[in-house]
Amino acid sequence: MGLKTTYVNRCRFIFLHLFCGLIIPFLTFSQSGNSQVKIDALVASMTLEEKVGQMTQINLEVILKKENGVIVNPIEIDTAKLREAILEYKVGSFLNNGRRAHSRNEWLEVITAIQTMALSSPSRIPIIYGIDAIHGANYSSGSALFPHQLGQAASWNPPLVKQIAQATAFETRSCAIPWVFSPIIDVGRQPLWSQFFETYGEDVFLTSTMGNAAVRGYQGENLSDGSSVAACVKHYVGYSAPLSGKDRTPVYMDERHLRETYLPPFERAIEQGVRSMIVNSGELNGIPSHANEYLLKTVLRDELNFEGVVLSDWGDIERLFTVHRVSANRKEAAEIAIKSGVDICMVPNDFVFCENLIALVNEGKISESSIDESVRRILRLKFDLGLFDNPITIPENADERFGGKAHLELAYQAAAESITLLKNEGNILPLSADKEILVIGPAANSLQYLNGPWSRTWQGTDSIISGESFETISSAIGSKSNNTNYILGCSEDSLINLPAVLEAAAKSDIIILCLGEEPSAEKPGDIHDLTISSSQQTLAKALINAGKPIVLVLVEGRPRIVSSFVDDCDGVIMAYQPGSSGGQAVADVLFGKINPSGHLPFTYPRYVNDLLTYDHKKSEEVDNYYGGNGYDPQWSFGEGLSYTSFEYSDFKVNTDTLRQGRKIVIEIKVRNSGSRHGKDVVQLYASDEVASITPPVKRLRSFEKIDLKANESKVVSFEIGEKELAFVNAQMNWVTEEGWFTLEIEGLKKRVYYRP
Asked: Fewer CB within 10 A of the end CB, N or C, for the chain?
């Protein structure tokens, strides 16, 4: 029996036997029988203080031991502070990681201490612990780190995204944490935004599809089965479209735009059964989201019928007073948030919220019945997670599977399918191992670049990640070729030893130039300009002047503009932030072991201020009087090359008339016309030829990723109905208007007429 197994079993023994006297009566509230009756009975027995505590979420740091204000390492629970939080303030939820990743053993010790204290309280209600699992169990040391969501979207492979979520759920639950603040289903149409890498890109359909796959993967068939977690989608709603591009800044958006573009992924997630969601930290049209009763109640509860838990984001209740200035003090801020529809408040660093909310109820400003509604939703989530039966649920085979071979192989597959080949002049790729290769650039020998933010630490820049046994791009290339030389060349801020760079370039046959941006998340990631840093531009131009072939590898979480030099590069690979196996995957693409199959989930801009998405309006593309092309991206949404070629033919529609309530069947034949095995993404677009609201030039309506051997063919079919052709009209209703639509796949087109 291994050390980990011994520790886990010891935790279980202590928990189950030391507090047996408390657990046995507690388990009368188990999953069996009429759960709602039991929840109602429990709520009726609770004091106001206990109810308010259930609506309070506190940062782990509050209950950790500190020396001179610094958290001790390894972390240790401060029993007195824990007692204050649970026994005095009745806190029902904790979050976060204490500023660094922890081993499974550390997590189990922390969660055991917390749950043990909860079971010693009069109510004996278990704690629900939540964590940011952005691209894997990223705050658990030794876990697999997958590509960030933008890279996952580039795979255009929903089953793969579901598998990633399942693996993340398993590894998170292996640390006794049952709740993840993921996936992010904000539609990413503002690439300046620092959380762009956390989105599934710019398209509504792609975002909804990938988001639903993730929710299914996280939540599984049964939340209480020990390997599933409750998903928490974020950030409801419109968070990803700040006017300034800066995080947590105002969004200005008309109602129709909100309903057609930003709301649908949340609606689809609700239909999928997502159990919780986090509220947008910013403001929409002058109203902070945490104070927006229309969005949180009228739309979310009444229109979309969401029955799950609504959670505030970090410190956002207090921000209603300190930043947004819609309240005179923290007490009034709490009143506004609760009346607007927030169930759990991530307060997160003190207990003032508890005191304020109790006072508001006692003063008659907030009804206890509204508090009861929130508490029922919270208890329902805890109940369905099986926490009342077993507050510490760990998968039986956690020791073998946590950070194990299967999950690492999945991380590699995900990275491999995400990597997008954007340019391959003269078939410079794949590389030949007998060439003298220079690997250069700030992203070439950095695990931090590969993993991005939310990797063991919040910003992902801590040196802890460097101690993990994963390959960087340069080391992975070096393992495939003995003719490899690495040199840093520059940082993001400055050029480093240009004479040495030029000397190394002169000795090489080909240059692998690895550029991008250092990891950053949320406010620290705010930038003023999408252009890649000047030092990286200078390095690229110096290498171009050296006259050697260059393959540019972009390791970045948002499109950094490279138009000043990219035309002089022979090959371009977009690697996104591919995770712990990203270095190996990039090298395998470069040398041809992997045939790249990623496709862009966003429009890559050529110019700083030209941020049009693929589904722009015709007026943004062509001027009827003066001509010209207003849509001129560096690379288009959906673009991606392969080392083989695909031929599309025999585009068929089973009818040229679509009737209300019916479906049309669309077929197309795809043949791998090249010499090697490869994957491609068949993308179906539709255009409304005439509409009462100016239509976009096209919209993605369906897609399928296919796998074909050389010379193999496949007929791909899609079914669409009036719903897939609908838009939001001036009256804020989803409608499909009578008239002609153009269907398009890979430049082939068919027209169909919709008749109600």
From this structure: N
Say whether pLDDT at 3 is over 70.
Answer: no
pLDDT digits (tens, 9 = 90+) for 473-498: 999 999 999 999 999 999 999 999 99
- Helix, strand, coil: what percent of the chain each, to 5? 35, 20, 45
Nearest to 456 by CA among 403, 497, 385: 403
* Contact by Cβ (8 Å): 35, 383: yes
Averaged pLDDT for residues 348-354: 96
Q: Give the tokens for residue 452.
A: 């991005």
Q: Is the pLDDT of residue 465 over 90?
A: no
Q: What is the pLDDT of residue 74?
A: 87
The whole-number pLDDT of residue 7 equals 44
Read off the DSSP letter of residue 457: B
CATH superfamily of 644-755: Immunoglobulins (2.60.40.10)
Instruction: Give the integer Cα–Cα distance in Å for 197 and 417.
Output: 17
Type of residue numbered 673 = S
- Joined together, the tokens standing for residue 556 give 């970045």
Among 504, 498, 536, 515, residue whose Cα is nearest residue 437: 504
What are the φ/ψ torsions at residue 197 (nearest 5 degrees)?
A: -65, -20
Give the CATH superfamily of 419-590.
Glycoside hydrolase family 3 C-terminal domain (3.40.50.1700)
- Give the separation between CA 659 and CA 738, rounded to whole angstroms: 10
Summarize the confidence of residues 120-148 as an average pLDDT. Answer: 97
> How many helices and strands in the chain, by DSSP H and E?
23, 28
pLDDT band at 624 (very low <50, low <70, confident <90, very high): low
Q: State the residue for tokens 């919209």.
A: 699
The helix or strand, by DSSP H or E, that contains position 512, with its residue range, turns out to be strand 510-516
| Average pLDDT score over residue span 238-263 | 97
Query: Token pair of 609, please?
Result: 């201020």
Domain 3-26+38-400 fold: TIM Barrel (3.20.20)
State the greatest distance between any 2 C-alpha atoms of the chain, in Å, as a whole number. 83
Q: Give the 3-state DSSP-derived string for 692-707, with helices as H, strands as E and coil as C.
A: CCCCECCEEEEEEEEE
Indicate which residues carry an active-site annotation: 313
Amino acid at 445: N
DSSP code for 88? I
> What's the first-to-final CA gap in the chain, in angstroms?
68
> Across all residues in the chain, what is the average pLDDT?
94
CB 483 within 8 A of CB 437: yes
Query: Which amino acid would we find at residue 305?
Result: N
Mean local confidence (pLDDT), 249-273 = 98
Check whether 23 has a pLDDT greater than 50. no
Tokens found for residue 621: 């593309």
Using CA atoms, how far apart are residues 102 and 510, in angstroms rounded to an integer?
41
DSSP letter string over 520-563?
--SGGG--S--BPPHHHHHHHHHHHHTT--EEEEEE-SS--B-T
**C-alpha span between 303 and 174 (Å, rounded):** 37
Break the chain into its structural domains and give their ranges: 3-26+38-400, 419-590, 644-755
Question: Residue 122 CB: number of other CB atoms within 10 A?
Answer: 11
Q: Give per-residue pLDDT as tens, 642-685.
A: 999 999 999 999 999 999 999 999 999 999 999 999 999 999 99
Say if strands 510-516 and 437-440 run parallel, antiparallel, or are unpaired: parallel
How far apart are the C-alpha atoms of 219 and 159, rounded to whole Å? 14
Which residues contact residue 245 at a Cβ distance below 8 angstroms, ignoring those fewer than 6 apart?
190, 192, 193, 526, 527
Residue type, 507: K
Cβ(389)–Cβ(541) below 8 Å: no
Give yes or no for a cis peptide into 161 (omega within 30° of 0). Answer: no
Q: In what order do the strands lie in the sheet with 179-180?
A: 309-311, 276-279, 230-236, 179-180, 128-131, 93-95, 56-59, 345-346
